[in-house]
């Protein structure tokens, strides 16, 4: 039987050879082999029209990978060009072809003789093979008849050729042709989730706006290209304090000039005030008196004050009950009992309330982080005095509560300082006259009901009397020296507060709005038209136009991982946009040079996404190879195929290039704080390199990938918001390593695996409202993976379906203060049903857990029904 199988394989090769000879073109053999290598087996035919029809059917089959689909379209263009130039070619050497056919017939007869010898071993196999070979001989004889007819026809055509035909001694001129193809998607779909999900989000643009204003009015602590600040002096308050008593400012401040670090400290102190502070001299009632003895402007005999406001940071308790100067504003139980407060001590749900910090809505979580910051700052100033006490002798009728209130402390704190009292003693217990008590010198180490001023012991003594404790918390931090702000407990508390207000939460009074409009199912479209031509017959120019009106699902659900692969657009725009422009130029038989002002990085990658998972089927996360590739920009690349042949039963290919962010590449801006263009200091770009593998039988595809990118990542479309910018601002450069495997282990089923790991490095310091959140050189790590099964011809011929699961890109390690994510799990299932060769319908469902990387964020889910028309 082994001999019979080997002979059968040889017979197939013999039958396929006459096709190239009959066509009479040297390119035909290469084109047919390429078509077969890309999954399109073309049956014997002498007609280029029939060949083109068969290629079209292959392209429309929907069973091909993106790489195969792109290759077949290029092959089709080459067949079209071959067809256009056929009338200029020389007549076929029919006699030579007939001789080849005769030789093959003789060989086949020899094969039959060999099979006869093997007849005793397998009569059944012999009969089947003999029938097959006899049919092949009959087919060949039929083709000989057709060739004779073709020969006569060509002789007549040659006689009747017009005067414009190329002379026999000259090569025929190539005539460019234009092909037009495209698709139209009609999509009904939507995304939904619980309120906890849709109103939780890491990114808060309000923080960016406030920080820009802070950099202009107070102090700029990171590059203008990052903050967007426009003040060339580094901040108004900073410039004022650094200059001291200078003619540049009037009236003179009386302050000595200081270095940049001290001026920055002054500017922060003049901003984190909690409102109500007067910025003037001490004699005129200035509130911020410099009391730090190591400060260059400290004077015991002639105290100086900070008299230039920065950017006011304060809490607005609009709609809350306020008793001026009491420190009790906004409390549910506004009594001076000196009990420690927390976020739940404040009214948050009362009608008309709008608790904000510098215009940023404060959720209960945010309020608690602010209180924690105030407590840490207060404790840093109180220091060792926190545990100091003095002796008090109880008088007749004294209780724990009355003694505590008299000394501005709480009953619970007083009991802590007197552990020797009987356990039965509580705050209402009447003390025996003469009982000695230890009374804390500092009544409230933490923020408590009854205080209305800021603790001393920092850079300044703040004499302002406040209406509420939240603004005291703000001022407690602002009154510290830079050294105190850098203490671990204070720094961590300040970073936790900034990180908290940089996100949103379901308890945000403004943010927790009803998202029903996000849940509406919509009817949208996505239409693409591709114009392709060739100037030499081997190159390919592509120009694509597109119109789509799908509001991104990631924007609807406020989570990038919810985006559809084809679902980007605007519901307001009715304009057709310029979508792609690239030119592929062959460099020999195995290399291509790519250049374009708007093209995707996978064009230059030899095996693209490195799997058999179809492109643009459903969710963008899965379609992009878990964030491996799909970046659009301007640049150039090179692809080299077959760098190693017959390597582990296949061939190795390599490709890579450089793509700049298109708006940056178009931007001629170059000044002191922003330099862009195709290559510039602030240009965002992506430089991918891929080593690809394809087995000889096409059943295995794999790749190793490396990407170096600066300031741009696909995670902003397929991952968590933090994975897009792990340092909040777009200041990172990152290296991405990816590995892929596609294995078609049966004729109709393939397994597809992808893993990506991202290493980010911050290029600049990141400060928000004077709080250091990241330092240049800080690193963060993220990862993603996916596993998918793709089924072809399941239930119905020419159908495609898939089940996919994976973890979207999420940050699992971060040296900066911006923290990490919980890992969201994604799932999708879809079935692409063919109504015809050109029309398909596709129902799909999907879900993603841990909304935007919040462990308590909930699960988002959605579904679509898509009608796909290919033309």
What does this 3D model show about the protein?
It is built from 23 helices and 25 strands. By secondary structure, it is an alpha+beta fold. A hairpin with a 2-residue loop joins strand 4 and strand 5. Helix 2 (27-37) packs antiparallel against helix 4 (66-84) and helix 10 crosses helix 11 (260-269). The radius of gyration is 38 Å and the shape is elongated.
Quick summary:
This protein is an alpha+beta fold and 871 residues long.
- Give the overall form: elongated
Strand proportion, as a percent range, falls in: 25-35%
Helix % is 25-40%
Distance between the termini: 46 Å
Structural class of the helices, strands and pairings? alpha+beta
Rg for CA atoms: 38 Å
Instruction: Count every helix, treating DSSP H or I runs of 4 or more residues as helices.
Output: 23
The stretches of 5 or more residues where confidence is low (pLDDT under 50) are 1-26, 87-93, 151-169, 509-517
Mean pLDDT: 83
Reading side by side through the largest sheet, how are the strands ordered? 1-9-10-11-12-13-14-15-16-17-18-21-22-23-24-25
Q: How many strands appear in the DSSP assignment?
A: 25
Largest sheet data: 16 strands, antiparallel, barrel
